[in-house]
Amino acid sequence: MESMFEDDISILTQEALGPSEVWLDAPGDPSLGGDMCSASHFALITAYGDIKERLGGLERENATLRRRLKVYEIKYPLINDFGEEHSFSLYEIKDGSLLEVEKVSLQQRLNQFQHELQKNKEQEEQLGEMIQAYEKLCVEKSDLETELGEMRALVETHLRQICGLEQQLRQQQGLQDAAFSSLSPPPAPAPPCADLDLHYLALRGGSSLSHGWPGPTPSMSELERRRLEEALEAAQGEARGAQLREEQLQAECERLQEELKQLQETRAQDLASNQSERDMAWVKRVGDDQVNLALAYTELTEELGRLRELSSLQGRILRTLLQEQARSGGEMGQGGEARPDRGEGSYGYHPASWGHPLLLFLCLVLFHSHW
């Protein structure tokens, strides 16, 4: 890339002069003193070389900073209020202090990311524990449902057995009543309550009737009836136990469903809170990055303006220096034609010749005061 200051510095070079022009204070000019010409020429060349070296180093530093700025521009594009990405100029310069500040900021962001990563790991562990508990509850629920189905099937089986036993008992009682009615004489008129009591005693297998009325031997039928009654009572007891077990299993299933619902609500709340925290942190990071880039852009613009003002000031000083040198050389040439002898003016002690060292000193002071 061509130098920004080439137009301002080229006025000191011999190539910038015309082919017929020469240095006014060259050693071959007989109108100036040898010592004064050598000193001023050496000081001017030294200042020019120093300025040229400094400008070359500054250009190299600017090129390095531009490359770094281009990298940062690619990584972190600045978005203005209108949603358009702003790209920095190639002539913008970044100071070393800004790089240090950005380094500290990046280190802080790295620490923050590490802290968030650790927090996310802990949350993932908690979430894994919750998932394991949820899976365990699901397995227990499926086991309870299977056991409940088995209990229901067992209850249905017992109910069918009870119905069958009751039907057999009714058949046995019907046969017994038929046999008893066929063998007994016609009953005397009695109140209805006596018939009900007699029927009740007959159903219960009352032994008192066997003493007053002759009947068949009830040995086998009585044993069968008792066995059926015992089986019925046992089946009813098993049915009551199965119903109680079913109620317990239903209560346990409802409790597990409530726990599962609470776990699902807790998990949803945790996920919502974590998502909101991550969104807020991301918005804050983006805002901080945009503010930092805007500040860096402002400082780079100000530094570029100062450098341009300094370069223009140096160019004006050097032009003024050459003009003063040309005027002093012209006056000395006229004085040499009028007075051929070498007097005080011929050695450069004319008051106009003092402008050259003063301007040179002013140029060096301004240049060193800036850096």
From TrEMBL:
<keyword id="KW-0597">Phosphoprotein</keyword>
<feature type="region of interest" description="Disordered">
    <location>
        <begin position="176"/>
        <end position="195"/>
    </location>
</feature>
<dbReference type="Pfam" id="PF12845">
    <property type="entry name" value="TBD"/>
</dbReference>
<dbReference type="InterPro" id="IPR024581">
    <property type="entry name" value="TBD"/>
</dbReference>
<feature type="coiled-coil region">
    <location>
        <begin position="225"/>
        <end position="273"/>
    </location>
</feature>
<feature type="domain" description="Tbk1/Ikki binding">
    <location>
        <begin position="287"/>
        <end position="330"/>
    </location>
</feature>
<feature type="coiled-coil region">
    <location>
        <begin position="48"/>
        <end position="75"/>
    </location>
</feature>
<feature type="coiled-coil region">
    <location>
        <begin position="103"/>
        <end position="140"/>
    </location>
</feature>
<keyword id="KW-0175">Coiled coil</keyword>
<protein>
    <submittedName>
        <fullName>TBK1 binding protein 1</fullName>
    </submittedName>
</protein>
<dbReference type="GO" id="GO:0005737">
    <property type="term" value="C:cytoplasm"/>
</dbReference>
<dbReference type="InterPro" id="IPR051891">
    <property type="entry name" value="TBK1-IKBKE_adapters"/>
</dbReference>
